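Email to the structure team, subject: Putative Salicylate hydroxylase model.

Hi all, the expression group asked for a predicted structure before they design truncation constructs. Nothing fancy, just the tokens so they can compare against earlier work. One-line instruction: predict Putative Salicylate hydroxylase, return tokens.
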Amino acid sequence: MEESLEIAIVGGGIAGISLALGLHTRNINVKVYERGKSLREIGAGIGFTSNAERAMLALDPRIYHAFKKVAAQNASDWYYWVDASDYSGDGMNGNGLSEDLIHKMDLGPRGFEGCHRAAFLDEIVKLLPVERVVFDKGLVDIVDGENSGKLVLKFSDGTVERADAAFPVAGGTLLNVVAFVTDTNPWPFKEKLTAPGTKSEAVAAFSKFHPTFRAIIHLLPEELSKWAVFDMKDHPAPTYSRGCIAVCGDAAHASSPYHGAGAGFAIEDALVLAELFENAAGKKRGDRARMVRAVLESYSEVRLERTQWLVEGSRFMGEMYEWQHGRDRERCRDEIEWRSRRIWDFDVGKMVVDAVGVFEGKLDQLNGVH
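Reply from the structure team: attached below.
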């Protein structure tokens, strides 16, 4: 009887735990190595559009239900884009300020729902057996195991683990408010992505916005955090796999948040990987390492174009929201419409079929089938 595949996931964030659940549900041996003493998510809220929800249902329906459990239920099925900025002259409504609807789209029942990142992570980690997650495991190096055909993972505590494949992944009444200000100066902190901020800075930055939005800013606490927004547009990964190691989620295609789709794309990544490994587990393996490489190469080929398009598109949307590409409202509506539909209406089932087809083709090549 052949030894089962062993998959190591380095990092216990939403992407890592979702992938682990997808693999575990498909009876693939998996272990998550987290450098912290516990799992935790920080940052702004998180939302999932319809493509991500369909991927959750296919990956493990419990992930979908965990999200719905903690999601804030919207009163409307519609998603709105509103201009509340200061126009020169008389503005769009005659008083120098505009609060105009630019576009709205129907997202289906309950619309574009969001939740607190930590609340979602807490729910999905409950679904994973406790022995599948190991804490205080800071990865130092990954090397080929030579004759064993496995990867050797070396950790900062001196311990060593072996796996067939490894994935480094990026890991009351509340109102989630995220306010963006473009600053062309270099980020001054090399070792961290956050800096202290103040409410007065935010008030000054949005002083010319519509009173409704200024009122929201005034609800913020006195002490705030500034978050640097970086993406991989200028330095895209040429591939998401190398040998028996692959990256997914933010580790593969870190994006700015202007499409609200980065986490959802990580769920899509996890679905492809889980389905490919399930397919591989049902085959006679022979050379395990070559089989794993075929899985990871197939994943990379299927996911590369869509995910890197998101990185580019999200940056463009952020610039457009600030009118950096002109104030053509009709063009703005058109860009919002087609880009959003490309994300939301994506066929995750076809994605899986395509990935399996690529994988089968690679196996045929390995086996000398033409």
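The radius of gyration is 22 Å. The chain is about 40% helix and 15% strand. Ping us if the truncation boundaries need rechecking.
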